[in-house]
Amino acid sequence: MTVAASSTSYVWRPRIRDPRAFGRVAVLMGGWSAERQVSLWSGAGVVEALRGKGVDVVAIDATRENVLRLREQHIDRVFNVLHGTGGEDGTVQAVLDLQGIPYTGSGVLASALAMDKLRSKRLWMAEGLPTPDYRFLRSRADLDAAAAHFGYPFIVKPSDEGSSVGVTKVKSPAQLDKAWSAAVGERGRTVMAERYIGGCALGHEFTCALLDGEALPTIRIEPDGEFYDYHAKYVSDATRYHCPSGLDAALEARVQSLCVRAFASLGARGWGRVDFMLDGEGEPWLIEANLVPGMTAHSLVPMAARARGMDYAELCWAVLETTLPAAGDGR
């Protein structure tokens, strides 16, 4: 493993020219989470891209049953784009490990940690990494206490969902009941409140994609609406993205290094994304890690890869390369 002087990149994956080296590749998509539709969009793009490069691909709309039988279908490796519960939280990763099938992205522990925003924040804080103050909400009454602690606005969200499902920027007491219901959802999700980060003149929502240990150019997001919610991510054409983000070179390098550290502290590998915000003083704050990022037309990792000179199909190929062991790799 060669580490760059900036500590923002290392490269260990093998470079593959012959698509036959991958064997038969299953693209796992769909699934049973609240992010099912986004996953289907991601999967369709990955399947088309890999087939276009000659890879033997089978598209699988994942269920709790068919992921247990992938070996029976002679699957050699998996490109996992199952977003949210089941596919991103370590569950499918454990199933694939038991079947001895290599897969894209992180393993069981890192996936579970990143999906649980409470525990990932606690780990980052223990590592001395900047992340906004938070409160674990056990009941609706705890939400009132959080409002008194943070003041308005502040954020209420589930600790174990992605794609901004159930997230509310609470600006007044009148929104508390609705925010609580949205976060808890029908299945009684774990809920947290978080200090709102804002005030940066350039804009406060950013993300940093990572591929094989390398931090790609950061992206600045101008959401259509109050914040970068589900509508702004996947429905609206009015959300604007800036890549390069417009950060000066020193701050860009600083936040890239910070995101690499945050990613590594979770034990993550392969590829992913770390979201962060800038406050009024230009200080970065880590929000969350996404270890099965979107691969849709609106998605951020393909956008960052393009800024690095890598098109969508090349990105899919590079992610798939991370499933092959390199010399000195212990997996």
What this model shows, in words?
Helices cover 32% and strands 21% of the residues. The protein is an alpha+beta fold and 331 residues long. The chain has three domains: 2-105 and 315-321, 3-Layer(aba) Sandwich (Rossmann fold); 120-128 and 198-310, ATP-grasp fold, B domain (D-amino Acid Aminotransferase, Chain A, domain 1); 133-195, ATP-grasp fold, A domain (Dna Ligase, domain 1, 2-Layer Sandwich). Strands 10, 11, 12, 13, 14 and 15 form a six-stranded antiparallel beta sheet that branches. A four-stranded antiparallel beta sheet has the order 6-9-7-8. Mean pLDDT is 90; it is low at 1-10 and 327-331.
| CATH homologous superfamily descriptor of the largest domain | ATP-grasp fold, B domain
Query: What would the average pLDDT be, to the nearest integer?
Result: 90
SSE class = alpha+beta
For the termini, the CA-CA separation is 14 Å
Profile the largest sheet.
Answer: 6 strands, antiparallel
Do you know the CATH topology of the largest domain? D-amino Acid Aminotransferase, Chain A, domain 1
What would you call the shape?
globular
Overall CATH class of the largest domain: Alpha Beta
Could you name the ranges where pLDDT drops below 50 across 5 or more consecutive residues? 1-10, 327-331
Tally the helices: 10
- Strand share of the residues? 15-25%
Total strands? 15
Helix content: 25-40%
Rg value? 19 Å
Write the H/E string, N to C.
EEEHEEHHHEHEEHEEEEHEHEEHH
Protein name: D-alanine--D-alanine ligase
Pfam families: Dala_Dala_lig_C, Dala_Dala_lig_N
Catalytic activity: 2 D-alanine + ATP = D-alanyl-D-alanine + ADP + phosphate + H(+)
Organism: Sinimarinibacterium thermocellulolyticum
